[in-house]
Amino acid sequence: MIAPSSSPPPPLALLAEVTHRCPMRCVYCSNPLELVAASGELEEADWLRVLSEAAELGILQVHFSGGEPLARQDLPRLIAHAAREGLYTNLITSGIGLDAALGCRLADAGLEHVQLSVQDTEATGVDRIGGFQGALAHKRRAADAIAAAGLAMTLNAVIHRGNAERIDAFVSLALALGARRLEVAHVQYYGWGLINRAWLMPTIDQLRAVSARVEAARAQHKGALVIDYVIPDYYARLPKSCMGGWGRRFMVVDPAGRALPCHAATTIPDLHFTNVRDASIAETWEHAPAFNAFRGTAWMAEPCRSCDRRELDWGGCRCQALALTGDAAATDPACHKSPHHRAMVELATREASAPPAAAAGDVTYRGSRRRRPRPPAAATSRKAEETCSGF
Amino acid sequence: MTAAQTSAGPGAAVLADVPRFAPHMRLSFDKARSRWVVLGPERLFVPDEIAAEILRRCDGTTSVAAIVDALAADYDAAHGEIAGDVVALIGELRERGVLVS
User: Fold this and answer.
1) CB A19, CB A72: distance < 8 Å
2) Does a structural domain hold residue B75?
């Protein structure tokens, strides 16, 4: 089947952000700074229609995300509906509240895979990042529930200055919890992560060490554990193909029903987002101004416009370009060809190497601007954790 | 796991193996694009025609040897050539966590 040349090829995946509610308040949460309240969330019937329309358009995978998707009581019904529509169903969860009974309900609904986030391998580190006491124990219980329900699991480890020394421990934890896949992803600096960047940025030496440990673990556990690895853009030479290109592969629907080309797109001013209450998924994908704003290559200026890689990385990340250059249509400064690239690397180097007290600034938890625990320091993280009274 | 497999490494496939998809991976027909796809967490493999024919037979009951026999008959091709392709593909996909056996 060949679509008319004016129609974009259909997306592959839907990121269904069913709620912004979450018991954790991670300092690098990718949710926007203005969270959607429970009262503003889409109704179940709307989500069911969105899932059907997504499958009809050609979407193959749905990621139930949030916030914490388990906060929605209707989640098993949404999963069951997606499964009936033939969509590959993935749940991205903190694991808080995921007990054996719920694990079975999710598996019975047809859930195919769970991504469980683990902020650290040490309990104090998890609590400090997530602003939630005792979270690691909850996550271990969740992993047991996932395994008992026969569900496949990926462990998601988000890496920053405070836990970069524990890659081997993350690998051991993934194997111990029965994960067949481990995602080692450095913090991406959008949303709350951008606010807390100075607190989180790893040093270049830490990054090199993490990369080496990941390579070693991949070789050691080949066939038993797949490890996906995402480096921080600030130390990259080439930008990542953010979302696989704007309006090419992904659609995000936020808790209020706004259809977004990426989960941080609301940070870009002047983009007009349609709502799935008003427009179908197919209409939105093809015609919504936000999806066409940076689709393809016609919007590009130099150095992207004439670059050989323009259809490989699609100019990188629009939200990062905006955050660091003030222009969402600029080349992502992660690219060495960007006039802002050097400043980006210097910024990262400066923030990562500042002594802990100065690097701390204000650490800001979502939903709160009051708490200021001590920062994780690169070289003395273990000691800092032992003495940090935290919350 | 057979002794032959162990000595050949975790990814290598042998004729007696009975491959099946890992619990989180699924072969699915993509109607909108008229093609077979292998779906997994944040993963999507698009097998070529021959690979799709092999993967459709990885049902957890058919051995690698039986898959080779079936394909050699269907495509009227040399048994040895097909066996090499099948063993290589299954070995590769096992290393990537798509298949288990």
Assistant:
1) yes
2) yes
Asked whether the beta carbons of residue A88 and residue B40 sit closer than 8 angstroms, the reply is yes
Specify if B8 maps to a domain. Answer: no
Q: Which of A10, A88, A151 sits opposite B32 (nearest CB)?
A: A10
Q: How far apart are CA A130 and CA A73, in angstroms?
A: 23
- The tokens 């690169």 sit on which residue? A378
Q: What is the CATH number of the domain that holds B32?
A: 1.10.10.1150
Judge whether residue A130 has pLDDT over 60.
yes
ipTM above 0.90, yes or no: no
Prediction pTM value = 0.88
First-to-last CA distance in chain A? 58
Domain count, chain B: 1
Q: Cα-Cα-Cα-Cα dihedral of A214, A250, A297, A271, to 10°?
A: -120
A364 touches chain B (CB under 8 A): no
With respect to residue B52, please indicate whether it lies within any of the assigned structural domains: yes
Q: What digits encode the pLDDT tens for the residues B33-85?
A: 999 999 998 789 999 998 999 999 999 999 999 999 999 998 888 888 889 99
